[in-house]
Design a protein that fits this description.
Helix content is 45%, strand content 16%. It is globular, with a radius of gyration of 18 Å. It contains 11 helices and 8 strands. Helix 1 packs parallel to helix 5. Strands 3-4-2-5-1-6-7-8 form an 8-stranded mixed beta sheet, sandwiched between helices. A hairpin with a 5-residue loop joins strand 3 and strand 4. By secondary structure, it is α/β, with parallel strands linked by helices. The chain has a single domain, classed as P-loop containing nucleotide triphosphate hydrolases (Rossmann fold). The termini are far apart.
């Protein structure tokens, strides 16, 4: 009896999620929505998000970053910014949307900051984050809205994934990270058509390609949705300049433009721009 109820509830949640995704796509906006996720923490997701934003901004695109790591926000640290208002001030009606659109020191980059240590529970199942994304898209002000999710697959992360037509997963070759990415693939394959994948701390392109092929083979063996596609778009090698710039609240793609890792991330972004819808 309980299993039957749980299954029915899961179907209702999925149905609601699809309706919310449909409502997102109905918003007339030039802004492309990209959700950046990882499954496992500590793989460099937020560092990637900040540097992806910088590279896109350097190409002339107007970029907004929504720090969606609920309770563990650190994007303001990476962008060296002390937020005057956060996403939750808007959620709680303490600030209008314009006030939480924070200018950064980087041209063309706007931050919607999270709040570290914040315990959010109110309306956690009422698609409040979906409505915020819709509000940001409706501004029609940005070329890209990047959503930097938290680690894992909690309900907040699932909501952001459900509404996004473009999902980029960051992982490493660590077995636990790959296990989490496979769990992400299993979940997304039920309702999505594609996951874009790239690797951090990975020596060369071929290694990432080989591991991705193994993940896809495992998915086929376990009979995941045959129409679900995993698209591998590149790797970033291990480099001391990445943690160094992070500790200094700087971006490695700005400080080390000609370094191999910056070139590798640029290649990832060029590939991403060809696939994003």
């Amino acid at each position: 009896m309980f299993n039957s109820i749980s299954t029915q509830a899961h179907k209702l949640i999925n149905l609601a999620s699809r309706k919310e995704e449909s409502s997102i796509s109905s918003v007339k906006s030039r802004t492309k929505l990209l959700t950046i996720t990882s499954g496992k923490g500590g793989v460099g997701k937020s560092t990637f998000s900040a540097n992806i934003a910088y590279v896109l901004a350097s190409k002339g695109y107007k970029v907004a970053i929504l720090d969606a790591d609920i309770g563990l926000a650190n994007m303001q640290v990476l962008l060296d910014l002390k937020p005057s208002a956060t996403l939750f001030d808007y959620i709680e009606g303490k600030a209008k949307l314009e006030r939480v659109l924070l200018k950064t020191k980087y041209e063309n980059i706007t931050l919607i900051a999270g709040k570290s240590g914040y315990q959010y529970s109110k309306n956690n199942s009422s698609f409040v984050f979906t409505r915020i994304v819709k509000d940001l898209l409706a501004l029609n002000r940005f070329d890209f809205l990047l959503i930097d999710t938290g680690a894992g697959l909690n309900e907040y992360v699932k909501e952001f994934l459900a509404i996004s037509p473009n999902i980029l997963a960051i992982t490493t070759t660590d077995p636990s990270a790959l296990t989490d990415v496979y769990a992400l693939m299993k979940m997304l394959s039920k309702d999505k058509s594609k996951l874009t994948l790239c690797y951090n701390h990975t020596q060369n392109y071929k290694i990432g390609e080989s591991i991705t092929n193994s993940l896809v083979s495992l998915a086929k063996k376990n009979r995941l949705n045959n129409n679900f596609m995993v698209e591998y778009i590149g790797n970033v090698s291990t480099s001391k300049c990445i943690p160094t710039t992070g500790r200094l609240r700087k971006l490695f793609t700005k400080e080390f433009k000609n370094d191999q890792v910056s070139k590798e991330l640029n290649q990832i972004i060029n590939a991403l721009l060809k696939t994003i819808i």
